[in-house]
Amino acid sequence: MVIDSIRDGIVIDHIKTGLGLEIYRLLKLGKLDCQVAIIQHATSQKGSKKDVIKIDSPIEIDLDVLGYLDPGCTVNVIRDSKVAEKYHPAIPETLTGVISCKNPRCITSAESDLPHVFRLTDKDAQVYRCIYCETMAKKIKI
Amino acid sequence: MRHLIDILDLSPAEIDQLIATANDIIDHPADYAEKCHGKKLATLFFEPSTRTRLSFETAMYELGGHVIGFSDAANSSTSKGETVGDTIQVVSCYADIIAMRHPKEGAPMVASQVSGVPIINAGDGGHNHPTQTLTDLLTITREKGHIDGLTIGFCGDLKFGRTVHSLITALSRYKDIKIVLISPEELRLPEYVKHEVLEHNNMTYVETQDLDSAMQNLDVLYMTRVQKERFFNEADYLRLKDSYILTVDRMEKAPATMSVLHPLPRVNEIEKALDSDPRACYFRQALCGKYIRMALIMKLLEVK
Ligand SMILES: [Zn+2]
Fold this sequence. Notes:
The complex is a heterodimer of chains A (142) and B (304).
Chain A: E1 9-15, H1 20-26, E2 36-43, E3 49-55, H2 63-69, E4 74-79, E5 82-87, E6 94-96, H3 107-110, E7 117-122, E8 127-130
Antiparallel strand pairs in A: 1-3, 1-4, 2-3, 4-5, 6-7, 7-8
Chain B: H1 12-27, E1 40-45, H2 50-62, E2 66-70, H3 84-94, E3 97-102, H4 107-114, E4 119-124, H5 130-144, E5 151-155, H6 162-171, E6 178-182, H7 191-199, E7 204-208, H8 211-215, E8 220-223, H9 234-240, H10 248-252, E9 259-261, H11 282-300
Parallel strand pairs in B: 1-2, 1-3, 3-4, 5-6, 5-8, 6-7, 8-9
The structure holds zinc ion.
């Protein structure tokens, strides 16, 4: 399968297989005007499976979202068809406006203007909790 | 400026200091009668809780201060759709300190983000109620002389009982505490509390359904009410509400030194006839609530 290489844009590589769509959704890539390609089950150089997202525009990527979903992925910034910069997203301490609290008793359910903020409360288990009601964020299922 | 939203907002040393101040107030109330002269406490009760509100208001009066506020959301601008943030920004122009109770979890945290004066969480839904926990810690200290090394049983609704979760959390910072969890299967302590509080802090705990034998080793028995509003169906509530009732007969077989605490109000989980038993501490506990709130108001207002 051939996807045109990009001149100026972003390649999110080494995404855990199955997380490509979730990353596409949470980064709101569907709202972009430029071309976006999600490649699922690509074969990496080491022979394992991965997802890849190619974005044909040099947009700002919310690294917190990536660090939350898949800290193992890499972000390549492409300029003039070359990798100009490479980032490894870190696991973020807080997440603002990325996921929403589902607890119907939480103050965020009553006041829609409040930002939904989650804090990393257990680094080993990667548990995020709503800062208001401490409800645990649902783990993303692959 | 400090707020009290969660019991863990206070360090163990600060809690010790509050307990010491409360004990001193009990011994020398006259010394404190004018400490908050000219200060105003706003009690903003977006959900009624007469007991907690009266405790805060009496505490402020006994410090020589004044009280303003409302006792349920129908009397506040919330009924007109005002946000918590807006209410707090207005009230913090008038009051020096705010005690607020709200049915939504996290509302006091939202308040603390915009308030110009200290916020005390006086209960946010089924979430936190730190002044109840301070009350419990003061009561245990007064009844037993110390907290370290005690075996403390919790009985009844350990699933929804926020007072239980937050007292266990507070106890995790003391030494050699043993926790005994007594409840029916359906009302057991949630896994996340066991994992994140008990196991994370290497606390010793056991779970049992047998109140009578568990009581034999307890220094403190903390009874709780099975609350109807926490259940989604009436049948479950009716089936579980009478699970554990502390009776005179049961107490005859309990240790002579076992203190019985209860956050009140009770329904039927403690027999009235037990009230005269010297081991029944729950009314003394309610009194402790006033004194620890006095100590807390002084601390947050930075009154010496
Ligand atoms: Zn929440």
